[in-house]
Amino acid sequence: MIPRYSRPDMVAIWAPETKFRIWFEIEAHACDAQADLGVIPRENAEAVWTADGVAFDVSRIDEIEAVTKHDVIAFLTHLAEIVGADEARFVHQGMTSSDVLDTTFNIQLTRAADILITDLEALLAALKRRALEHKDTVRIGRSHGIHAEPTTMGLTFARFYAEMDRNLQRMKIARQEIATGAISGAVGTFANIDPAVEAHVCDKLGLIPEPISTQVIPRDRHAAFFATLGVIASSVENLATEIRHMQRTEVLEAEEFFSAGQKGSSAMPHKRNPVLTENLTGLARLVRSMALPAMENVALWHERDISHSSVERNIGPDATVTLDFALARLTNVVEKLVVYPEHMMRNMNQYKGLVMSQRVLLALTQKGASREAAYAMVQRNAMKVWEEGRDFQTELAADPEVTAILSQDEIAEKFDLGYHTKHVDTIFARVFGED
Amino acid sequence: MIPRYSRPDMVAIWAPETKFRIWFEIEAHACDAQADLGVIPRENAEAVWTADGVAFDVSRIDEIEAVTKHDVIAFLTHLAEIVGADEARFVHQGMTSSDVLDTTFNIQLTRAADILITDLEALLAALKRRALEHKDTVRIGRSHGIHAEPTTMGLTFARFYAEMDRNLQRMKIARQEIATGAISGAVGTFANIDPAVEAHVCDKLGLIPEPISTQVIPRDRHAAFFATLGVIASSVENLATEIRHMQRTEVLEAEEFFSAGQKGSSAMPHKRNPVLTENLTGLARLVRSMALPAMENVALWHERDISHSSVERNIGPDATVTLDFALARLTNVVEKLVVYPEHMMRNMNQYKGLVMSQRVLLALTQKGASREAAYAMVQRNAMKVWEEGRDFQTELAADPEVTAILSQDEIAEKFDLGYHTKHVDTIFARVFGED
Amino acid sequence: MIPRYSRPDMVAIWAPETKFRIWFEIEAHACDAQADLGVIPRENAEAVWTADGVAFDVSRIDEIEAVTKHDVIAFLTHLAEIVGADEARFVHQGMTSSDVLDTTFNIQLTRAADILITDLEALLAALKRRALEHKDTVRIGRSHGIHAEPTTMGLTFARFYAEMDRNLQRMKIARQEIATGAISGAVGTFANIDPAVEAHVCDKLGLIPEPISTQVIPRDRHAAFFATLGVIASSVENLATEIRHMQRTEVLEAEEFFSAGQKGSSAMPHKRNPVLTENLTGLARLVRSMALPAMENVALWHERDISHSSVERNIGPDATVTLDFALARLTNVVEKLVVYPEHMMRNMNQYKGLVMSQRVLLALTQKGASREAAYAMVQRNAMKVWEEGRDFQTELAADPEVTAILSQDEIAEKFDLGYHTKHVDTIFARVFGED
Amino acid sequence: MIPRYSRPDMVAIWAPETKFRIWFEIEAHACDAQADLGVIPRENAEAVWTADGVAFDVSRIDEIEAVTKHDVIAFLTHLAEIVGADEARFVHQGMTSSDVLDTTFNIQLTRAADILITDLEALLAALKRRALEHKDTVRIGRSHGIHAEPTTMGLTFARFYAEMDRNLQRMKIARQEIATGAISGAVGTFANIDPAVEAHVCDKLGLIPEPISTQVIPRDRHAAFFATLGVIASSVENLATEIRHMQRTEVLEAEEFFSAGQKGSSAMPHKRNPVLTENLTGLARLVRSMALPAMENVALWHERDISHSSVERNIGPDATVTLDFALARLTNVVEKLVVYPEHMMRNMNQYKGLVMSQRVLLALTQKGASREAAYAMVQRNAMKVWEEGRDFQTELAADPEVTAILSQDEIAEKFDLGYHTKHVDTIFARVFGED
């Protein structure tokens, strides 16, 4: 996580202030529940809430931690400084540090998921708008980077919409999976704390109690979470790659928006580089790579070890902040993408009519030519277009073996673009729903 | 995928015979739909089914592919050899190779998912049985590899049950995600083939039509699939690691089953090594590593490139065969795991009573000692146990500062094991449901 | 490792026959050394060599292993069947299975490295030949996929030569690192076997004795080895990506060789897809992904566990066979690459003269214009070329602010291609050496 | 990179101030070379050095970049503010931003490598000291976590010494590989700048000129660099894992140093958790994971794209800062590790004499017993030790079949520890050299 690739709302989730606020809420709600159970005096539970609204002094907590080398004890010591040592003496009773730390981490991830869900929804809205705008903008479809058959720019946007919509569903599942809390004590047996405390704290904080925890919440949940971010990041790369290809000098079917004051290159003022989508490609690599250590974190020793912690202190913020930034940047790129329909038409006609070769092939077969014979007829005329720049339709019309099978009208019909776009509405209905 | 780590049912899914059989079904069902639409003659569609039940000659197809360098054309050529060139001439009409290849790959992954789901269910059954068997078998809970507080072996099995149950849910979602098919032509526009063909083929083969495809089915689906396998593999490692720890010479709370004829080591006949779970640890690393190239596969160029193919030809079989083998092996290990309750008790009492220190700490606090004072009292007596091998309860009972707060009865009560297991039923109900 | 992406020499290294032959050599040489030391009778050592030249019966060994569940014991049993139980009774004395297994694995990796070194040398020869052939073939250099300044195709080949030459050096280091053997017994103390045996076996088999082993040869060596393969694979992807870009329909500056009988697509006969380099891109992902589990293998428990074994049984063959295939395929692609110099020139002139903008910018600055003013002059004329298809030189020549600084001759000089290629010889000398 | 896991010297390498200082040096040296060549006036080159010693205003540069969206231009603008717009007008002439950025990045990585080399040397010194200290401290060697044969704690330290020494060599190679610079212009042709400038700048900054660059220095160098960090991190995990195992409650052969004020757990005051080595395990996962995106960075489009940049802005600091911290922490752990020789002896004798079983097996064979018979004799007595807690030597001495072959003295001799340590000096000489 570096400032250059960060947005403030997501960064705030990972700020020490936020963390300590969540710790406070967990401890205070736990005291309430303990008081309900009669385990601790009501007045002590109420006293804790006097710290509500007080901004915790991060540097003071750091100072205490430097001595105790234990972050939760440092916080509790500071909390006692605020509410009074005597009043605070039942705080954290029966709990273990991980009860606080793990529940907090899951709250942070849940909030991060909420932002990512919003990000995805914004991206979907942009993709849908551009899809509808360019539903009928014809461009050549390419496989292997080679011209294949016509498609439309709207279908391109629509397929990324469908992909990102799947990612939205995945993100929602990941959010649901990670929204658990645990207040179950040192090894998860509730020996020193009643399950009712966990239930109360989780209820107050919008979590589901973890059905069975050890000292920690099981890390398969987190592995699934970060793997989901990795899949979404890979889709970001997918869309970024499409745009980078479209912006190539020789293709130039679209360009990232280029603001007036922006300088493309210190040396070549005419250059408009797809630097945003190139940047997104790199960010995708980063987010994706974090899925692996998250998976390695699953196998903790016995009831827990703390090897996952240093990983999560890094990838928790890094993966969510980076993906949030990437989604927002991508949404902006999509919204402002400059599309050049005329270049699309120019490119499609680079090898005149050649992209219609399959239609001709089919037509020949349907009129009775053997597959092999039809293939040969199409191939020999196609090669003349490819190598000599001729016009495919003209060549076919002059090939007696072809015209023995297809009339001139039949040949001409094969070069109608509408043929290729006739099911666009059907596909749009499948992607966006009927309206 | 190597024979040593393979099971036949999963291997069969990836056999050439299976693949060609699926190709045949796709082509034959597509012909039926084309005939329904009046695009091709009914008799040609029916003729294709004469190959139903015929075993395709894999070596013949390979022979043709060696010339054409195109696998689908090779198959179609061979199919025409069986049903007759003329009869077969409408086969594959309007389709592109990827229509067949991608739909087939998804069918194979769906079938693989079915096996993995069955594997997980078997593992869950084994874990549940062992959990119930050892619900009350007390052992020490460990955090950081260090004794913490008592728990039970049943809870250990139960937490792996809960984790594997989440994996089962993930696998079901992954199966659902991957069970799509596409018959949409060269760039996914249905230009040369009616969407009704796709609908028919998918219906017959138990798939959902891909809402929008290009030449290929989008690879975010596959990335999510293989990431799920990676998460499950990491859970396999988690359980394997627990068993490896339990089997350590100094711990020996459980052992992998050791058959009569088996030799542990050529040099040390007494050794019983946890080789199965060590093996599973390695297999987990393998399966997990395959999530990364699957994610890199998402960003294909434009409507598709074929870079994903060589990856999938490997990880498709490798990841599913390896995980199937690993889950089956793990189930076997769990079912036959030799558990040593007496060693569990021996280990727990290694530092006499020390694991009860938190209870004492809490008791002191609850009777009015300050947190810091209580901590000091517990710590100084604990150190005597730790360093001099004394008995914790005895030491406490002889510490006047402690006995000024707690009576001898109150001290004794803190060493009652039942205290730690009182919520086991509650947790079991949460994991396995009430009964 | 699948047959489609395999070559026989590398596959042979990993065949059971090869493995058993190496096992035999290790055991036989070890017996010689033991006889030299007087530990075992000379005649028993000599008797072992009677199995020299005998083809071991893999299925018989498998049969025995099915009972003993131990591969080395199975082999030794079979060996005893050949040389006689009595004669063979000192074979393997003082050794542990891993002495044989690890030394063998390192021999296999060393041999694999030798093939990979040969592969890289062949690739280098092809790259050098093509570099010299196209030393002066001008094409546009591109950054961000956007035209920048002219370069030559020879420089493109030369930079991949330099990169692959670095990979050759890395591979040689990796080979040197992995060429160690260990015959040090159950925990590496040589308690039951003299270090002289290790020295003799290693000397005979071209290895260096591992300075300190445990039961196993330390796995950081293997991690470094597979990481090196991952780096080389990434360079394969780099070159493959260049070719895929060059073959794009709109660019078409080069094409993979297209054999006469080959069919590009079942549907679009004119298409020539860069399927070989796309395939290489996927293979690179595969090889790269194997570096991770190799790194995870480093941390074995105490003197060893066997978790690395299942990983290495897979990635040992998979990574080396795949990379060997990839390098050979890439060499073939480079050797036969069809280069289109005329398309290179066509592409460079797509935006007439625009690629010379930096030269003009510099000239203006050098003649006294401020950086900002020069930038503005260049930018406004460049935009006319970009947006209206005008000729950059003509526009500049008509811009009074420009001509106030640069004469027409000075402007014309900026469009001389020789300016850009003047240091090609220098760079070639740096890459290929002076001659 | 987070402060908790950072050390100041490494962090300083990545500070904006350091970066801008290096940028300045590159530009100023380049001006000198340009003046030497007569390309720019000498006084302009000299004027640039007036900024030597001036602290660049990072916030001012950020401010300019916010407008220009180009970091190098922002810096050059600020530099011109310091040395005067007119004086500065030849700065950066003929160069491209990447000339500055890539050369700077390599300088930073080279400096980072220097720190890591120093770190490794400090770790090696600590390991050597502890190895010599515990050369003869006998402990049980374990394979698969199971007792095997005696070894010494000194050998444990020595094997990590040998591994880390290999890592030191790898790090030195990685440093050498990354210490290159490039001042070759927009596409690496030196069109606008003489190679002599590159030579001068590299010479002044301790770099080797990159033999052939494009716009950028080729990224296979960086992939190899970060892969090396990943291998070293994996070795850190290896040593950390050993210590974590030694500190397990049941084993307790060593402990991380536990300072007086430190609190182990808020709930269980007696616990001393191996939190430093657990932490290192997690940090290793992090560093290792960064090798993958570094490898993905190799395949840039044509002469370059900028996808690598966002990756490197993160992993450049993150991987080096984290590994520096990890190595320093590990050195500290090794230096202060509390070793318990008496616990080692206790553990070794847990199953009385059983670890000597291989010696007995060998002795029986050497005295003429068949391998199978000897195995059976050892096995049946070993099982009595294992299952009934008997003493192995006593059992053997009472087994008539054994005593028919071995005398009581011969049996006794097999239980001599010196037998296992007799080659320790030899191994130490191999690892540390003779002295």
Q: Care to describe what's here?
A:
Chains A, B, C, D: It is an enzyme of class 4 (lyase). Chains A, B, C, D: It catalyses: N(6)-(1,2-dicarboxyethyl)-AMP = fumarate + AMP; (2S)-2-[5-amino-1-(5-phospho-beta-D-ribosyl)imidazole-4-carboxamido]succinate = 5-amino-1-(5-phospho-beta-D-ribosyl)imidazole-4-carboxamide + fumarate. Chains A, B, C, D: Belongs to the lyase 1 family. Adenylosuccinate lyase subfamily. 4 copies of one chain form a homotetramer. Chain A is mainly alpha-helical and 435 residues long. Chain A folds into 3 domains: 1-93, Orthogonal Bundle (Fumarase C, Chain B, domain 1), CATH 1.10.275.10; 96-345, Up-down Bundle (Fumarase C, Chain A, domain 2), CATH 1.20.200; 354-414, Fumarase/aspartase (C-terminal domain) (Ribonucleotide Reductase Protein R1, domain 1), CATH 1.10.40. Helices cover 63% and strands 5% of the residues of chain A. Chain A contains 20 helices and 6 strands. Chain A has helices at 8-13, 16-36, 42-48, 58-68, 71-83, 97-133, 153-178, 195-205, 220-247, 275-289, 291-296, 307-336, 341-348, 357-366, 371-388, 392-397, 400-403, 408-413, 418-421, 424-432, and strands at 138-143, 146-152, 180-181, 208-209, 254-255, 338-339. Chain A has a two-stranded antiparallel sheet with strand order 1-2. In chain A, strands 3-4 form a two-stranded parallel ribbon. In chain A, strand 1 (138-143) and strand 2 form a beta hairpin. The radius of gyration of chain A is 30 Å and the shape is elongated. Chains in contact: A-B, A-C, A-D, B-C, B-D, C-D. The interface between C and D is large, with 92 and 92 residues.
